[in-house]
Amino acid sequence: MAQLRQEVDPGEVGLDPEALDRLDRHFAQQVEEGRLPGYLVAVSRGGRVAHLTTYGHRDLAAGLPVESDTLYRIYSMTKPVTTVAALLLMEEGRLSLDDPVARHLPAFADPRVYVDGSGDGMRTRPADGPILIRHLLTHTAGLTFAFYHSHPVDALYRAAGLESSVPSGANLAETIDVYASLPLQFEPGTEWNYSVATNVLGRVIEVVSGQPLDVFLAERVFGPLGMTDAGFCVPADQAGRLAELYGETGDGGIEPIAGLPLHGRPRFLSGSGGMVASAYDVHRFTELLRRRGELDGTRLLSADTVDLMTSNQLPGGVDMRAFGSRPAHDEPGNEGVGFGLGVSVVIDPARTKASTGLGMYGWSGVATTTFWVDPSRDLSVQFLTQVRPRSSHALYQDLKRLVHEAAAH
User: Fold this and answer.
1) pTM score, two decimals?
2) CA atoms within 13 A on the CB side of 170
3) DSSP strands (E only) in 211-336
4) Which residues participate in catalysis according to the annotation?
5) CB-based contacts of 352: which residues, under 8 Å, 6+ apart?
6) Quick check: 329 pLDDT over 60?
């Protein structure tokens, strides 16, 4: 077990200690008002941790504090990790961005695309071209999520038992076959729609590598990077470190809710959202990206591959908000933000109406965890708590503003 520690005083790396104090006070107030149970925030410059704060509780009922080694369900922050695993296989020549997915998963051999109608009256047509690996990495495959409630295709996902992205009791291979049986929302490669695509990618990794996803990640990513607590389950002797998961109540408070089943290896290995990790693990992974594929003498990926991953890959070079008003697209924070391979990328800081820098990249998880790297300021940031919000909130925007105030002087 490794633990994240502050390595340098903020002033030594050009960060304003008073601004960082304002950041701490802001989020401490969120805890005192009952909106967060507790949190960890870490701000690094040049790879050195210059600000590390833990505050509040990882388990309110038990009175257990947030500590620097607390474990968190990082949900969709799993996606960039799965992306790195796929890119490892790509660099080894075992996978190509332009491989048809059906080359590895035959169930996707004959995709059909939505035309009109709904339910039994839905009309579909054969896709003009195949789903490619790059479409999975960029969420341009035409797949979706069941919980959107915004399109006739996501209604089919719900009818197929995919409200939580996996049919009850199914493993990854069985789940992917269900996805493949459903129509695509649009022609592959033409639009962006945040989706179950990274679960499909996880299964591709299994087939190409010949290993279960958790084993491949442990051997090829977590081990080499020293991500000592990262994985898909929590060992019994470490269970006390896992933060309780909370959900927002209607009056702005929080209450405990059920989370990922992490005690014992899960039957469904979700490359989309199944990981648990500590702040140290997140820092190590973030450093791999910030240093363009190398960490402490271990090179996982070439610099060119990381540059590709962290560059906008959306059709026409547009931002995520360009593809309609569905829930995944219409977040105000998506304006001026494109998507690379597994991470968002700022392509127009002025249009984001937030404290961002050109090329800033990262991703977040549904339980209010986030990380980003800002190359223009040589900053990397993570914020970890365990609250599933009822809707989007201003926490990330506040975090960006307060961090960049500290970096601006």
Assistant:
1) 0.96
2) 18
3) 246-248, 254-256, 276-278, 294-295, 298-299
4) 76
5) 333, 335, 336, 337, 346
6) no
